[in-house]
Design a protein that fits this description.
By secondary structure, this protein is mainly beta. It folds into two domains: about 80 residues, Cytochrome Bc1 Complex, Chain D, domain 2; about 300 residues, 7 Propeller (Methylamine Dehydrogenase, Chain H). The protein is built from four helices and 30 strands. The relative contact order is 0.14.
Length: about 450
């Protein structure tokens, strides 16, 4: 396998890593339904302070138009674009009159041009991918998490619009479902009846949508001090959904009774993030605020923590292979990690894009590891073979816009939610013909 040149830096449109580490991408309390964070002058609760945009013609229009929906820090902290690139980026968020689009994109292209961001390192290998993407109907909804449904459809959370979406990749038909105001759905899963369960990170609820009727039922968090329900995972054997919370808790809700149990982690100041079940139905999660992985007793909800050897480790998402080994993406350190619960052994590999590559979403297909690099331009899909310890990478056509969570389908594809470009994706995986060499 040979690294190829970083040729994508000449593209007119790139993905903006508009603060990909923003906690939960939440909107502040009291924000109007579907309004992204930062309505009040560019700052949101717990987020960065307001920014002052550069002087120049068009500045007032940018402030008046863009700040209606998100903080201006997303402009200042973006990777930047050409004028045409900004026009394409704006088209994923809002439809503007031509004269207004011209003024705003001219200002942004002049004052926030393309920055020197880490380029995608492309490595050849034995697999092939075909990446298809669909624009979400509600502009600016910023799809957060994706789910591969039993019927072959793709579901996603339109977090900034408080909507859930369903895409039939065979026909391209898309339908969106309104959720209660200020829900800000983050993660989602599906029960055997086809109902979609989601975490309402802003409203503090676990919700259930019946796609047949559009009816929604909400279950408020029951534990004082618990907030920010984050990522859910379903155990079909018990009818329980386990979920992480931003407040340093892990929860469980029974789908039949609605009974909810929420437990605090043993360590303080934690942020349970990604969560998966192993073959025995034991939930495992990663702590994005500390160098640790946790397991949860599915019956008692007792939590056990496992420290990682590097004090700077901040694992963000995980997947579990058939041998019940934990694989995790260490976002700030730019590494892929492996933790064996049986032996306690930890092994890590630098991601191809380097220390600033920000590995994020991760899954496995037949014990082959697939994850995304959200800090490189364009974002990449990365394949890692645990047997050969070799990487292969693929550029995402739209740039990606930060892939935060994805899942494998029963057919061996991957469904994605591409936040910054407001798209839903399907990654179909194949292999090179046997007579081709690399």
């Amino acid at each position: 396998m040979r690294p190829r040149s970083l040729f994508y830096l000449a593209l007119a449109v790139f993905v903006a890593t508009v603060s990909p580490s923003t906690t939960g991408q939440q909107a502040p309390p009291g924000t109007a339904p579907g309004t992204p964070p930062g309505r009040q002058g560019g700052a949101r609760q717990g987020g960065p302070p307001p920014v002052q945009l550069a002087d120049g013609a068009g500045r007032e229009q940018v402030q008046a138009t863009c700040a209606r929906c998100h903080g201006l820090n997303l402009i200042a902290n973006s990777w930047g674009y050409t004028k045409d690139g900004w026009q394409d980026r704006i088209a994923t968020m809002v439809k503007l009159p031509p004269a207004e689009l011209e003024a705003i994109s001219s200002y942004l292209g002049a004052h926030y041009p393309i920055k020197d961001a880490p380029g995608a390192v492309l490595i050849s290998g034995p697999a092939t991918v075909t990446i298809k993407e669909w624009l979400a109907p509600t502009l600016g909804s910023r799809p957060h998490d994706s789910h591969a449904a039993m019927d072959g459809s793709i579901w996603w959370t339109g977090q900034f619009a408080s909507k859930l979406g369903r895409l039939d990749p065979r026909t391209g038909q898309i339908r969106e479902f309104e959720l209660p105001a200020n829900t800000q759905p983050h993660g989602l899963t599906e029960d055997p009846q086809g109902n979609i369960w989601y975490t309402g990170i802003q409203k503090g609820v676990i919700g259930r949508l019946d796609p047949k009727t559009g009816q929604v039922k909400e279950y408020p968090l029951t534990e004082p001090g618990a907030r920010g329900p984050h990522t859910p995972i379903l155990d079909k054997r018990t009818g329980n959904i386990f979920f992480t919370l931003q407040s340093g808790h892990v929860g469980r809700i029974n789908m039949a009774s609605g009974e909810m149990v929420i437990k605090k982690t043993p360590s303080d100041n934690t942020y349970p993030y990604g969560i998966r079940l192993n073959s025995q139905g034991v939930p495992w999660y990663v702590d994005f605020r500390g160098p640790r992985i946790g397991s949860v007793d599915p019956k008692t909800m007792e939590i056990k923590e496992y420290p990682l050897p590097n004090a700077d480790a901040r694992p963000r998402r995980l997947t579990i292979t058939s041998d019940d080994v934990i694989w995790y993406t260490d976002f700030p350190r730019g590494t892929l990690g492996r933790f064996d619960p049986k032996t306690g052994q930890v092994k890590e590999w630098p991601s191809p894009g380097g220390r600033q590559s920000e590995p994020y979403a991760i899954t496995q297909i037949k014990d082959m590891i697939w994850y995304s690099e959200s800090g490189v331009r364009p974002n990449t899909m990365v394949r890692f073979d645990p047997q050969t310890e070799k990487f292969q990478t693929f550029a995402i056509p739209s740039g990606g816009g930060v892939l935060r969570h994805f899942e494998a389908t029963a057919q061996g594809s991957i469904v994605t939610a591409n936040s910054g470009v407001n798209k839903i994706g399907l990654v179909e995986i194949g292999t090179l013909s046997s007579n081709r060499t690399n």
